[in-house]
């Protein structure tokens, strides 16, 4: 569901698509990565389905993988939203994403839009 600020006002800066990709998450206090699933993605961030609770504003390292285990990108992200209930997880904003990584995400989102 799009983030809104008041009735009918869209706040998202980038197109977002539903997806089902593996992601590995590591916070600065962890030695190991947690495995999770991305449910939607855009150039600006993603929604990650994960039971583990992370703190709003916390900076984490994420590595996103395409089917077959090919790494799409690896970057830092900030936790900007948490949801609990039938869809538990976190919304993250990518931090200082390189232009080449932005293009990879943009191409993925556009290729999914063509396949709809």
Secondary-structure blueprint of this entry?
Layout: E1 17-27, E2 34-41, E3 45-49, E4 59-65, E5 71-83, E6 89-95, H1 99-114
- Strand order, sheet with most strands: 1-2-3-6-5-4
Name the assembly state.
Answer: single chain
Helix count from the secondary structure assignment: 1
Largest sheet: 6 strands, antiparallel, barrel
CA radius of gyration: 14 Å
Mean pLDDT: 85
Ranges where pLDDT stays below 50 over 5 or more residues in a row are 1-6
CATH class: Mainly Beta
Number of strands: 6
Q: How many distinct folded domains? A: 1
Measured as a percent range, the helix fraction is 10-25%
Give the N-to-C terminal Cα separation: 17 Å
Classify the fold: give the CATH topology: Thrombin, subunit H
Shape: globular
Q: Which structural class is indicated by helix and strand composition?
A: mainly beta
β-strand percent reads 35-45%
Describe the structure.
- The protein has 116 residues and is mostly beta strands.
- It has one domain (17-114): Beta Barrel (Thrombin, subunit H), CATH 2.40.10.
- It contains one helix and six strands, in the order ββββββα.
- It has a six-stranded antiparallel beta barrel.
- A hairpin with a 5-residue loop joins strand 5 and strand 6.
- The protein is globular.
Quick summary:
This protein has 116 residues and is mostly beta strands.
Descriptive labels:
44% strand; Thrombin, subunit H; disordered N terminus; mainly beta; 1 helix; 116 residues
């Amino acid at each position: 569901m799009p983030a809104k600020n008041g009735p009918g006002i869209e706040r998202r800066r980038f197109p977002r698509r539903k997806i089902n990709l593996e992601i590995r998450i590591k916070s600065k206090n962890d030695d190991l990565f947690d495995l999770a699933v991305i449910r939607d993605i855009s150039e600006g961030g993603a929604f990650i389905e994960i039971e583990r609770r992370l703190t709003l504003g916390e900076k984490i390292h994420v590595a996103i993988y395409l089917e077959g285990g090919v790494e799409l990108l690896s970057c830092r992200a900030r936790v900007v939203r948490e949801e609990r209930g039938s869809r538990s997880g976190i919304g993250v904003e990518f931090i200082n994403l390189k232009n080449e990584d932005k293009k990879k995400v943009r191409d993925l989102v556009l290729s999914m839009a063509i396949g709809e």
